[in-house]
Amino acid sequence: MKMTVRDCLELPAFKKAVIISGKQGLDNRVRAVSFLESGYSPDQIQSNRYRSDEMILSAFFPDGSNEETQLQLIRSIAKEGGAALVLMPPAAISEGWTQHVINLSNDLKLPIISIQDDHELAYSDIINQVMEQVLYGDNFGNRLITNTIYHLLNFEKHSNFQSAVREAAINNNFQIVILSEDFNPVFSVETRHRTTIAEAIRVGIERDVDKSAVYTRIDVDGALTYWGPVNINGDKHYMFIVDNEDSYSPGEITKLAEILEIAMGMWKYSPIKDSKAEFIKALRRGNKSLAYCLKDEALPDGDEILSVFCISGIERDECFKTMIAFEKRTNHEVVKIHEGDEIYGMILKGQGAASESCTELYNELQKDEGTIIFHVTAVNGLEGSADAYQLINETWPFIQYIFPHKNIFTKYELTLASNCINISIKSDYLKKNYMDLIAPFKTSKETKGKQLLETLEIFILDAGMSTSKTAKLMDIHTNTVQYRLKRIQEILQADLGTSIIPGLAVALAVERIEKITRML
After folding, report:
1. CATH classification of the domain holding 321
2. I need a surface site. Which of 48, 102, 203, 327 has the fewest CB within 10 A?
3. Residue of 464, 452, 445 lying closest to 505 (CA atoms)
């Protein structure tokens, strides 16, 4: 509910108030009450201690002998969006203000109000009276709540909760959006289009609404939204309510949310399935027919799928915030769901999307060694997306044994791992052919055959054929690596810079899989 400085002056606590200056700002919005303590400098006011639309109380404002400090404090309060400065005894004086201070207050439309000595008035009186009006107003519950209940309980007119709440929202000028636990919309009533649901969700995630047990007010491009958790049939959801014209107090909106949750139970309301989540799950399970059925609902604009991914070992909120920043920067859309300690989904190309690579996002997400990322980028539609998930699913258990030093796996590592797994498990003939390529190291009479094989594995599979990186991974000198590689070429009777590398890479990867299977 809108509360102005002018409204505050009508309260009993302000019966002895005198307006010193700044009458042009009497219609300033008041959302909260704050304090200016003794010793505060202008620099301290320009900090996170103060927010806009706060009425600031102070009993320690500098007197007229320090005009420059007065001017600096007034500038700082106005810059931070202060609604008014209210002076309490002993700082409260009604005379002796310099014309410079009065002129500045008028120019900045910052009311300076002095409350004369009143022994019966306490700080708490001002705070209680102002905040009661801000939160509840005079007509709390007489408009929004009563009218909403009327529509929600009109069982004769409405056949379900969706119809009842839609009429309640239209008649009371609010909007409602219900989200799944992964912040995908499952129900909405939109009566105004000041911003998009997608943009509101981005701001809500950035403000950590999932960590608040009470309703949180967030301004999204001028749309005043209130966010909170809601339990529907035992499942966690999120709901945000939009006050279209800023007509209601936070207390009214909170009570409205409680009534809506009760009404859901009375109507036995069950949200529709999260179509985007079900679409991703169908692709991940390889159920292409179900994915085709869900595609139009999950991707109504026919968005192009650029990449699919699976991520484990990352904190959900941090991951979602990074994805939101990526969306804003590139105009791509990231559709994701969260299950256990895994997050999986896809990147969609939006209209007018920027050309930045999807791999940008995956590199940003890899902040911790425990984070493992699988992605297949440049997929071919729905069929290609399902095949990509199948590739990830079948290689997930083994790929880290093949590439123990990697945290991000692309379709190239995944394809190599898939082929090696099939060779190791299904084809004795092919496996023998590849194992023969590295057999000289096992049959060599040299005692260092095992050491040379390990060096070759790291050089090709882990170090990208870099001698310096191989030396670093093995904690040995570069000259030692170069000597071993020379000896390896002599044993293989081939140059490591030739076409033998692909075959050796497969052989070494199969060898690593074999080592693990022998240990199991």
Report:
1. 3.30.70
2. 48
3. 464
41 and 164 within one domain: no
Whole-number pLDDT of residue 520 = 64
Query: Nearest Cα to 250, choosing from 128, 134, 127, 129?
Result: 134
Q: What is the pLDDT of residues 122-149, one digit of tens each?
A: 888 888 888 888 876 654 445 788 889 9
Residue ranges making up the domain that contains 283? 275-414
SS3 category, 266: helix
Angle between helices 275-285 and 381-402 (to 10 degrees): 60
CA distance 517 to 520: 5
Give the strand pairing for 112-115 and 32-35.
Answer: unpaired
Confidence band, pLDDT 50/70/90 cuts, at residue 3? confident
Here the tokens at position 389 are 């998930």
Return all residues near 171 (Cβ < 8 A) that are at least 6 apart. Answer: 147, 151
485: which residues sit within 8 A by CB, 6+ positions away? 455, 456, 459, 467, 496
**Interval 244-268: pLDDT, tens:** 988 888 888 888 999 999 999 999 9
313: left (phi over 0), alpha (psi -120 to 50) or beta: left
- Token digits for 97? 């203000």
Instruction: For residue 412, give the 3-state DSSP assignment.
Output: helix
- Gap between the Cα atoms of 319 and 307, Å rounded: 17
d(CA 195, CA 104): 37
**Last residue within a domain, chosen from 72, 103, 135:** 135
* Whether the Cβ atoms of residue 313 and residue 343 lie closer than 8 Å to each other: no
Written as one letter, the residue type at 87 is L
The pLDDT value given to residue 351: 66
Residues 491-506 have pLDDT tens digits of: 888 888 778 888 999 9
Structural domain count, the chain: 4
Rounded to whole angstroms, the Cα distance separating 100 from 86 reads 19
Q: Which of 246, 266, 286 finishes a domain? A: 266
Task: Indicate whether 256 and 335 sit together in one domain.
Answer: no
Pair (18, 60) in one structural domain: yes
